[in-house]
Automatic annotation (TrEMBL):
Organism: Trapa natans (Water chestnut)
Pathway assigned in UniProt: Protein modification; protein ubiquitination
Keywords in alphabetical order: Cell cycle, Cell division, Metal-binding, Mitosis, Nucleus, Ubl conjugation pathway, Zinc, Zinc-finger
Broad class of the protein's primary localization: nucleus
Protein name as it appears in the record: Anaphase-promoting complex subunit 11
Length: 110
């Protein structure tokens, strides 16, 4: 494990991979250790917008209309978002828009 100072009192620690020579032209790498620093999961049945994280039955952060007055939009991947949230998301993408949840190419569900 390697440790090096980044600045006064702050150190960066990492586990370095080990290398084993198996053949003359092949090098295989094995991981010594791995430490997750964060974990994020999403319940597909959740009743909140995946972009603004507001409940669908609450107020949309853009139009301020209560639940049923702000339309929900589903993608072909079956993820649902507030209309205003997904339109902003799609328009902010520089290339082909992708679903913010599953990263599939975004298409509005017919």
């Amino acid at each position: 494990m390697g440790t090096r100072p980044l600045s006064d009192g702050i150190f960066f620690t990492c586990a370095l991979p080990s290398y084993t020579m198996l053949k003359e032209d092949e090098i295989y790498r094995s991981m010594i250790s791995w430490h997750a620093v964060a974990s994020w999961t999403w319940d597909a049945q959740d009743e909140t917008c995946g972009i603004c994280r507001m409940a669908f039955d609450g107020c949309c952060p853009d139009c301020k209309l209560p639940g049923d007055d702000c339309p929900l939009i589903w993608g072909s991947c079956n993820h649902a978002f507030h209309l205003h949230c997904i339109l902003k998301w799609v328009n902010s993408q520089t290339s082909q828009a992708h679903c913010p949840m599953c990263r599939r190419e975004w298409q509005f569900k017919e």
